[in-house]
Amino acid sequence: MIACPFCGSTNLEGADICDDCQHSLTDLSIPQPSSPVEKGLLKDRIDVLAPKSPLTVPLDMPVGEVLQKMVEKNIGCVIIVEGRELLGIFSERDALMRLNAEVADFLELPIQTVMTPNPVTLESKDKIAFALHKMHVGGYRHVPILTDGDLVGVISVRDILNYLTQRIDISA
Amino acid sequence: MSFHLSLNTEPVTAAFPNNPLLVSPDATVGDVLQLLRTHRAGSVLVCEERKLLGIFTERDALKWMASGKSVEEPIADFMSRNLVTLNEDATMGEAIRLMSEGGYRRLPILSAEGQPTGMAGARGIVHFLVDHFPQTIYTLPPKPGTVAGEREGA
To answer: A71 CB near a chain B CB, below 8 Å?
Structure first.
């Protein structure tokens, strides 16, 4: 049962309006953040994480060349683009799962054949809670960030961890 | 219980550590890569007679792939030797600090006898943190900015 904050009468759980006074009860079901960290997650936008600008490669770049670039630049994922359109993502994880020990057979093939097409993306004005949601529930390590449809960066699970730890006092 | 308190009292073993995969230093890169794929894991610990020698991660696998070397090479030539490890009684706070300062994604957890008993990962720690504010994260709509006009099923 939920008590109406206006007239005090009790209503069935999940009711939209109070049976007695007809006041709306829908606001009562909106979760309220209980700690500063939670408030930050719901208030701060992804911009705050300063997404790193990604390494982009064309669809037809050979796998071998992409691997070289990833090692040289010391990065965990590349974004595959055509013009301004984001088409796929290729990460360390994909390298391990798809190329594995047979990597020699793939070196000459275009990256298109082993990339993950149509990755989940977020807008830079979205809240950090969404990034955490995507990464945690979806199990992604990297999420490309767009601004009005244009790729501006990539955020990783470590960016989120850093964000959280800056806000949670961990001085032991 | 406050958030602060729990990070400094919770042991790192609460951060959903994975069971460590162990291989010997003379295992070949090919064998290790297949082991990683089979277990869908991101790292193996290289041990000799129960002593931890090094770690071989996705990152090292990428370096091996880019180097174009043979699958018959021993894993010992590609592993990272300078290991940062945690004791079983380390706190979550320590693990997080080590990870963000050193830029590590995984830390082996060692028992008092020096035996590897688990791998603490960035993902496990994020999972642990999210469990402290489930309402904020788990109840989000699949797309940002989506507002349901009516209650579903009502």
So the answer is: yes
Nearest C-alpha neighbor of A144 from the set A65, A91, A71 = A91
Cβ neighbours around A15 below 10 Å, total: 15
- Helix H or strand E encompassing B56: strand B51-57
Segments making up each domain of chain A, as ranges? 2-30, 46-167
Q: Is A162 on the interface with B (CB under 8 A)?
A: yes
Q: Are the beta carbons of B92 and B128 closer than 8 angstroms? A: yes
Residues B22, B65 contacting (CB under 8 angstroms):
no
Q: What is the pLDDT of residues B37-94, one digit of tens each?
A: 999 888 999 998 878 899 999 899 999 988 888 889 999 999 988 888 998 889 888 8
Distance, CA of B69 to CA of B14 (rounded, Å): 39
Structural domains of chain B, ranges and CATH numbers in brackets: 3-135 (3.10.580.10)
For residues A165 and B7, give the distance between their C-alpha atoms in angstroms, rounded to a whole number. Answer: 10
Mutate to test the interface with B, among A78, A140, A168 (most CBs of B within 10 A): A168
Contact B107, B119 (CB under 8 A): yes
**Is B126 in contact with A137 (Cβ distance < 8 A)?**
no
**What's the CATH number for A46-167?**
3.10.580.10
Strands lying side by side in the sheet with A77-82: A55-58, A77-82, A85-91, A116-117
CB pair distance less than 8 Å for B8 and A172: yes
Closest partner residue to B133 among A38, A64, A158, by Cβ?
A38
Q: pTM value?
A: 0.78
CB contact under 8 A, A133 and B122: no
